[in-house]
Amino acid sequence: MQFSPKLPVPVFPLPNLVLFPDVVVPLHVFELRYRTMVRDALSGERVIAMGLLKPGWERGYEGSPEFYPIGCLARFEEVEWLPNDCYSLVVRGIARVAFGRIVREYPYRAARIELLPQEPCSEDDPLILSEKYALLELYRRLLPHPGPAPGESEPGATAKPGADLSYEALVSAVCMMVEAEPLEKLQLLGLDSVIERGRKVQEIAARRAHEQPPPTPGPGERN
Q1: Strand, helix or coil for residue 117
Q2: CA-to-CA distance for 175 and 202, rounded, in angstroms?
Q3: Residues of the chain with pLDDT under 70
Q4: Fewer Cβ atoms within 10 Å of its own Cβ: the N or the C terminal residue of the chain?
C-alpha cells in the first residue's frame, strides 16, 4: 500500500478496542464527527488510525479525551452507507504507529504518525515454525465457532483454521481473540518483536485459563 506517514491521519480512538496488523474487524460509526471522518477518509487514502482512550475518557468524551501514544493504522476494506446516515465499515490493520502532534481537533482529531518498525522474522526459521505450531493450538481453542476469525477473510478456506495465516498474522489474530484488558493488549501491540508478542499472548491466555473457576458439575457428576 502506498502511504505517506508525513500526512496527518484521522484518529478514531475507542475505549475498548485495540487493533493489530493483519486483522480485519467490523466497525459501526454513528457519531456525527466520525461520520465526517469516514467521508473525509474515503475522499483521501482510505486510512484512519485506531487509538485507545485513556481511563477517565467518559468525563470529556464530547471534547478531546486523551488516548495512548501507540495505535494501529487501518485501511477501509468495505464501506456501507446506512439509511440513518451511519456507516458500517470493515477495516484491516496494516501497521503499528506512534501518534505525534495533533494537527486538528475539530470536528475530529487528526495527527502526525510514525510507522513503527518490527523485528524481521522468517517463516522458514525453525524457531518460528515451532512457535507457530504452539500458537495454532491456542488459536483453534479460542475460536468461538468454525466460521471466519480475526485474520481470516473467507469461511471454510482451509481444513484446519489458521493454517493459511502467516506467523505475524496468527500472532495478531490471537492477540485480538484472547481475553485480556485493553491496556494489556496495547502493551502487546507495543512490542517490537513478533516472537515476544506471541509468547506474551500465550502467557496471558494460560493465566486467564488458570484464573477461570472450574465448571460446576451437572446432575450425576458429583462424587
Answers
A1: coil
A2: 9
A3: 1-6, 145-159, 212-223
A4: C
